[in-house]
Amino acid sequence: MAHWCQVLPRPPGLGVHYEALVNEPRSTLEPVLASLGLPWDDACLAHHESVERVQTLSLWQVRPPLKTESVERWRHYEKQLGPLIEALH
Question: Whole-prediction pTM value?
Answer without folding.
Answer: 0.64
